[in-house]
Amino acid sequence: MHNRAYSQNVPTKTIYFLAGPKDHGAPGRHETKLDLLVLQHCIDSIANVKGVKIITKFLYKRSALDIEDLKGVDALIIESSAESSSALRTHPIFPPSNGNTKTYDKATLDYLAQVDSLHKHGMGIMVLHWAISTSNQKASQYYMDWFGQARLEGYTHNPAGNWVVTPMESGKKHPIMRGVGAFTYKDEIFSRLLVNAGDPYRTDLLSGLAEKTNQGVVDEPFAIASAYEKKGARGILWGGMDYHSAFLNENYLRFVLNAIVWTTGIDVPAGGVKTAAKQLQLPPSTGPNEPIK
Q: Cross-referenced SUPFAM superfamilies, in alphabetical order (predicted)?
């Protein structure tokens, strides 16, 4: 566990990074553990967030329906495969459906109701890359409630290619967009999600175009990133974060760090989050669940 304290008697915020197993992808892609360790290191090395003590935790391959380790947490940052991608546990929050795509057993439903209650009482949730994909209808319902959007089979797609990403007019005044300009980078972005049209709680932040991807041309700009805030509960689905090297892009990294800080309920500083971390040079870790020192 990491502490960043600026003075005594300041508010404390706890950010819990949860990485599912890396179960596919070449080295440098779908690096769930390494991605979140880098982001944890960046948050631990924040240079311009004042007046708050930030505590970070990290866990790889969370498998238990354990509500206790989520209590007292201000934000969950999740990167994993889809909840239905394996008969084994891949998603840190949702267990495998095991063929039942409509609901879960009673123990799971009780546990998910408690997760939902924590969220409604202020625990932010940010879900990254393939973890945005849900096949179980109950999981999808929670996503619609937490994020105002969810994956839809046959509609949502995931083009991989060189993206031109532009801040949207609708989100330019949102705190997450502080210090974030247009950028071009390589990514696979799960996008074109099912949304409630005109949802007052959703703010679209970024649009994207790609001249060449493995799924053809993306020539009509649409929202690829949004923020959701409903009665004090904050949530973000971000379908990017496939290529680990994307952290070398300054605007991309600032967008992600701003989003983490905002999801946690911390004010994003003017100009966006700045970190003293060397993003791709991690200190050694002593074990699979050991935070960076």
A: Class I glutamine amidotransferase-like
